[in-house]
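It is worth pausing here to work through a concrete case rather than discussing structure prediction in the abstract. The textbook approach is simple: state the sequence, then state the predicted structure, then interpret. We follow exactly that order.
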Amino acid sequence: MILIGLGSNRAGAWGDPQTTVKRAVDVLGATAGTRILRRSGLYLTDGVGPGQPGVFVNAALAVECHCTPDALLRRLKMIERAAGPRSARRWGPRPLDLDILDYRGRVVGWGTHDRLSAAALRNRIFLPHPLMHERPFVLAPLDEITPAWRHPVLKITARQLWTRLRNARSGRVLKRV
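Step two, the predicted structure:
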């Protein structure tokens, strides 16, 4: 099973953030060789990072596909570009952000992501996603679709991770829509 996080906080080519996230799910589901196993509801969440990131719409998917993690990342980046251009600023506003959260329990790049520049991090695979366990906006939808999933490095379930961060301020879940 592969887990994907979806987020949007700016209107783009596909419409408002809620419409964009729903369309991204449809596009990914229609991609050859990809099958959506489970999808979460949509969550309104606070953004994280510098500046005023605003409110996001977030969701999570459990999928199966027969491509490599690199090929899946390329697919996700193509879908992001189709939804509209993203801000040049790291963690800036964007019509769509798609992240591989976990790829069948693989561990790649852990322990190195904090020593790399932003340019070196771009389009590089880190599995599981190196910040997912610190982000309520990832954990709430993940807990909805797969509460028993275990983080491949931390060995803690999605439910346990979500319970730890349920009341966090940064990236907090405002409501399920």
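Step three, interpretation. Strands lie at 2-8, 34-39, 43-46, 55-65, 97-103, 173-176. Residues 25 and 143 are 18 Å apart (CA to CA).
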